[in-house]
Amino acid sequence: MPGTVTVGLDGTDHSLAAADWAAAEATRRGARLRLVHAWVWRPMEALVAADEEVQRRWATEVLRQAAARVAEGFPELPVSTEILADEPVAALVAASAAADLLVLGSRGHSTLVGYLLGSVGLQVLRQAAGPVVLVRSPRPDDAARPRDEVVVGVQDVRESDPVLGFAFAAAAAQGTSLRAVRAWNVPPVVVWGGETMRAADDAGGLEPLERKRLADAVRPWRERFPQVEVVEHVEMGGAGQVLLSAGARARLLVVGRRSPGRHDLRRIGAVAHAALHHAACPVAVVPHP
């Protein structure tokens, strides 16, 4: 049974860019495309906005325009549209649970990640049960930049399987190489000893140890996706900075996010935060335990 790629639309150019990217991704996956718009009639808003029927027509038109745009570029792609009768965050979080992938628009570069995503996108990103891809509107200079890699950040190698699995599948579907990136620094004195020292000694030093850790994490996925050419990139420095620098040729940047618990819904992680701020390509945020 084919999977589903879902796009949350809000009528902006950013969400139309998300629909374009999602349509191409659904085609690569052999999946269905589901276009959704969350809308609830609020009678009090009629004092300052259009009446219920006008608002409903506007919501319907958002979906119609996006569907027509997708049909023009991808005429064979199965597409459905749906107005979700719920608040946007709740509706999109529920939609993410029923989809293989949720795609949202992003405003691009900004000094504040909340502004970059919008409050709805940021809350959905924190709570979504599955992968979410953030897509910004293309810039005039994008066509001149080579984009020929899927780039994935691998920091916590013990919990990286969902992130690596998503990245390898994306590289296979897109027919590109994959660059697995791991940043490292000299560990603090309080943890420099015992197991860490022995492991570094066995590997021949700290950098060889980090290369071994990355190679061990990537190896099972190399075996599952032998058609994907892999570059293992290990570099000393801050994780976010190293990932962005190594991802200069990325057509998709993949980062992990710890699945939310009761007390950590506000956190998306420093590396994901940096990618969402500064990456020039779509960013996939994949939850892991």
TrEMBL record:
Coiled coil location: none
What superkingdom heads the lineage? Bacteria
**Residue span, UspA domain:** 4-136, 149-287
Query: Which family would the database say this protein is a member of?
Result: Belongs to the universal stress protein A family.
- Specify the protein name: Universal stress protein
The species this protein was found in:
Streptomyces rimosus subsp. rimosus
